[in-house]
Amino acid sequence: MTNQEYIDNRLATYNEAFDFYMDCGEMPKSIEKGDILGAYLKSVIDSNPQLDSQDPLWMEVLKDDLLAFLSAMLSAFVPVEEAHKKEQAYIGRYKNADLDKQRELWPSVYEYVSKNYEPTDVNIAGYVEQFKENNVQDVIDALCEDWMKASDSRKDAREKKILEKNAQSWERHIKEWGLSDYKRRKKIDNTYYRYPALQEIVKIIGREQPQRKDEKDDITYKYIPILLSTPAKTVEIEQISIGDDVAHMMPIETAILSDQETETLFYKKFAGKQLQIFANRPPLKSQDKQIQQHQTKPRLEMGPIIVSIDTSGSMSGKPEEVAHSLLIQLLRLAKKKKRKCFVITFSVRSRALELTNPANWRKLNKFLEEGFSGGTDGEEMLNSALDALQKKDFCMADVLIISDFEFPLPKSTTKARMRAEHDKGTRFYGLQIGSWPNRYQSILDKMWKMKI
Length: 452
Fold this sequence. Notes:
Number of domains: 3
Radius of gyration: 39 Å
Helix content: 40-55%
Order of helices and strands: HHHHHHHHEEHHEEEHEEHHEHEE
Distance between the termini: 48 Å
Number of strands: 10
């Protein structure tokens, strides 16, 4: 596992621990005893008892800032953790070596322990004296055990010192800038609630209302027998046929036979088996008929979210604010329901940011600020979204495009890729901000239009 993967995993654990503690009033089992940052997270929440009674946005602001601080601390802890692992490995190698190797390494071990540990932590001189009276291997095992405990304690002490050194400045930052952060996010929320279309988008992508028929229905083919086999034994006369069975002749044939002028005609019809006779219906055979039926095609209850935001120059200003407010709500939804989230910005080129890990949440504002200039390349944006769908974590996602759609329809190859992903369960939506004529509603599952 790389250092970044370790940081991402720990940050995800602290993110869940924050929510768990707010809901249950205790830390989850994933936060082990002695976890320095887990204990600090708990102390921060305990220091803000008013969170439960305030606007939930305050808790969101505190949580995001706290996770950003913990991310920085985890990065600062990396050198300490690496040094600790290296030392633990060194202790293990010395303890498990044969006696000749232990004697060879002893001078360097003695020098290292004497230099880095106080006698109250590892009394190396005392162990030297014990060599005179006790079994050498027993003394070395006891030394290594004390040394490992002292190594753990030294790591914890170093990390606590780093945390204490930075915690005060972070807490001052929260007091000074927390209100500004809250007001900025409140403004974003107000923009969102001003437009009903944005709320409808979140409901549909959040799967909080029944899916529309045209989003779910799939045509299936069902084969059913249209005729059932009849019993072999039957005496019921059901139809008129032709043949030479005089026992079942129709009265008209009897009349022909009784008239001398038509008698010859009768025999001719009899010889040719052309007499009209009563007959039973032939046994019915099972046949298959193919019929079309509409059957609901189930979708994932919760799936990933891919948001593509047009950051060309034509989207700057009010459209940018609307796009940002909708994105924040979708990210909030993804956090709440633990759904994967992927953001793509596009203008002359596309850029992507995966928000699966909490470590990337704080990068979002800077990521968006680098856009809103130049023209638009919708083709590259669509292919970036389609490429993201190939990842295991983002297959069968909901894809939302936020743009003024001042770009042509995709190429036929791109349309074919979209259809293939749609067949797998992906749904494509669009929010057009502006009044530019576009035909994307013909290839998207649903298009919302807003005039700002």
